[in-house]
Amino acid sequence: MGAGHGHGPSHGQAHPHGPADGHVGARYRRRLTAVFALTAGFFLVELVAGLVSGSLALISDAGHMAADVVAIGASLVATRVASRIDRSGRRTYGSYRAEVFASGLTVLIMLGVGVYVLVEALGRIGDAPPVASTAMLVVGATGLAVNLVAVLLLRTGSRESLNVRGAYFEVVADAAGSVGVLIAGALIALTGNPGWDIAVALLIAVFVLVRAVTLGRQVVTVLAQHAPTGVDPDEIALSLAAIPGVAQVHDLHLWALTSGMNVATAHLVARAQADHHDVLDDARDLLRDRYGIAHATLQVEPADHHGCQDLTW
User: Where does the record place the region Disordered (predicted)?
Assistant: First the structure.
């Protein structure tokens, strides 16, 4: 049939069965833990303040903070699960997808919080209860400080890990919510109109829903095994076809196992007299060095081989 090659740990890719020392999400576990502690502590403060002051903006932001606590906790569990050694022999790709499922849970929580606040705010229009603006200002300022610290802790990891990105989106949305609470508190103090509380709650709800949809699309891209973001299958196919000795490329598949772990499989039809080992090594190096795909399974076929015509997908 030709030469095949599966390629992983020797070029910086964590082995699916071993600990994820190079795993992106695991590198940010300490920062996620710090953000979890900050968020959980402030959630209790904001919830009590919201109930005492009667502010829907505070209560809605506290609800979003509660979503953060659950989502970041799930992210922490996922990074630990993803880095465990598989002793069953059944998880041939390891447990890295746990992080993606955690991100999916974050999306569901954000959607639930956003819809709840939206409905509650709409129900208060025309019948806004009195709100204690001083509590809104104090808690809003404290919340903004807490969220800015969390944003700084997760900003770098959000560029590398889908799991960390989910937590990052949560705290960014919280920071925006804290700004909204501050604005609403100031406007209520100046005008005496509690309707500003409802207006800000609506804005928070819309912002949370938009963030949830954005992250949800990224999660679906991974779970549906689409080509990773920023990776062009046509370009890769042309690059592989341009390798000396390659006559044709077919059955090219590209997907992301989880953040920072892109995977590829392909069949390369070699020209007559071509050295299959050279073709295999050149293709492996191309995928790793130019496209960052360190785990590729490549099959090199002689030009007169026709067995792949039986494939139906």
Answer: 1-22
Predicted confidence at residue 296, as pLDDT, reads: 92
Residue labelled with tokens 């969390």: 150
63-77, 226-240, 244-258, 260-274: least confidently modelled range: 63-77
At the topology level, CATH places domain 228-310 in Alpha-Beta Plaits (3.30.70)
Q: Compute the chain's Rg from CA coordinates.
A: 25
Write down the architecture of domain 17-223 according to CATH.
Up-down Bundle (1.20)
pLDDT tens digits for range 289-303? 999 898 899 999 988
Angle at 101 between CA 42 and CA 160, to 5 degrees: 75
pTM for this entry: 0.69
